[in-house]
Amino acid sequence: MHPVGGSVSGYVDVLAALPPDAACVGFRARGLDPGGEPHQDIPAMARQYLAELCAHHEVKDVVLAGYSFGGLVALEMASQLEAAGLRPAGTVLLGTWFPLQDVGRADHIAMFRGLVSAIYRVPEDLLELDGLSDADMVVVAAEAALRSATLPAEYRHADLRRLLGVLAANLRMTWEYRVPQYGGPVHLVRPEQPGPRDDPSAWAERCTAGVITHDVGGEHNSLMSGIHGERIADVLATCWPD
Fold first, then answer.
1. Could you give the 3-state DSSP secondary structure of residue 216?
2. Which contacts qualify for 139-144: CB closer than 8 Å, 24 or more apart?
């Protein structure tokens, strides 16, 4: 499942390191497509992804996994399956923080600004977003990004506003999400340098069958790439060799 930006491109290094016969399915955010409206809550997103997944695969044979925000979606999908009397073969949270509650507007804007800077390489001092609504925040951020000489060429197009809209919507959905209890085992992949919001004990309270932790080194933003991505592939291949 995609992280907060909506794309699955960040999984390239993990997928390249998996055994060649490992079949993988990626879910990108609906709002990235022209004419597609972003989801407005994680449970609805999970329901749609499950409907698409179950139409082509036996869920008992599937390992649900997601990086960062995607881990919340994966866990919600596992919880919905459990409510229907099913369980996936596994559930993996890749660097997923337990979501904060009651996040204030200023903190929401600051997090959006930091994500735009990290994902699209836009200097934070160009992102004057304080006091704006999400809609206005997206417009201003897109204009600042297009003016930025550091914006990667693949993002220099008219659809940038749509990409940032997905980012803002997914971020808001994170703060509104209430993590359900889940009765199956959960694997939590963590960086060596976790962020200040990373609290693995919070997952243990919701995942009643236990949380298996895997430390793969690095820090949150580099968790999926290079040697860390290869270590994640090793974890997946070892835990689910079939």
1. coil
2. 141/112, 141/113, 141/116
